[in-house]
Write a structure and sequence with these properties.
Elements: E1 2-4, E2 11-12, H1 14-27, H2 35-38, H3 45-54, H4 63-77, E3 83-84, H5 88-97, E4 102-105, H6 110-119, E5 129-130, H7 143-152, E6 160-163, H8 166-174, E7 178-182, E8 200-202, H9 207-212
Parallel strand pairs: 1-4, 1-6, 4-5, 6-7, 7-8
Antiparallel strand pairs: 2-3
Helix pairs in contact: 1-3, 1-4
């Protein structure tokens, strides 16, 4: 089975994540940030977005209130224009043709994961969909990956996990899966994917087919 992270790996959600952040900045009298400034933080959830948008960390007294405000805004715009990364549609079609099950494991809360995948037409096709709040510990812990395997009835050692953040690789390795870095995702200038210990990296989704088929 092939398991995918969601934001920055399977679906390009940066436009809507950035749009919600800029709505929040405007609400607080701040200027809009360019998409290319926000984009590298899009895989890091509200924690990463609030760090670039407001220079906040979870230790700040305002963090929880600002996080709830951001999530409420994102809830209103999350289906504005999410798109599959180029090549993802063809990759998933090829996996379906080969009867290779695939699923989604994300740290995104279920309240966002389900409508997003429904909107983009993937919810019913996936063998499993596990969100960050479906288990007691999200990535980098392996709990959600184990839950996905349980739902699909497949041994973790027969799975690949594909993601664009270090925590994805940490979780996949902890679960005993083969791991793949999606270099086309939301990597920032400070990221060092070659140091994450992944089995392999890909520059485009369709490269996964050659890996899976051993070519």
């Amino acid at each position: 089975m092939i398991l995918f992270d969601l934001d920055g790996t399977l679906v390009d959600t940066a436009h809507d994540l950035a749009y919600a952040l800029n709505l929040q900045r405007e609400r607080h009298g701040m200027a809009v940030l360019p998409l290319d400034v926000i984009r590298p933080y899009a895989s890091h959830g509200s924690k990463g977005l609030l760090s670039i948008g407001f220079d906040l960390t979870p230790e700040d007294a305002r963090f929880d209130v600002m996080r709830e405000e951001y999530l409420a805004l994102y809830d209103q715009v999350l289906t504005r224009k999410p798109v599959l990364f180029p090549g993802v549609a063809e990759l998933l079609a090829a996996l379906d043709e080969e009867n290779m099950p695939w699923g989604v494991v994300t740290n995104k809360p279920r309240r966002f994961t389900q409508p997003l995948l429904q909107n983009i037409g993937l919810l019913e096709r996936a063998a499993c969909v596990v969100s960050g709040d479906d288990a007691s510990r999200p990535k980098p812990h392996p709990d959600t990956l184990f839950l996905a395997c349980e739902q699909a009835g497949i041994n973790p050692h027969r799975c690949w996990y594909v993601g664009d953040a270090e925590r994805d690789i940490q979780a996949g390795r902890a679960a005993g899966m083969k791991t793949v870095v999606a270099l086309y995702g939301y990597l920032g200038t400070d990221d060092r994917p070659d140091e994450w210990g992944a089995d392999v990296s890909v520059n485009a989704p369709l490269e996964l087919l050659r890996l899976i088929n051993g070519k």
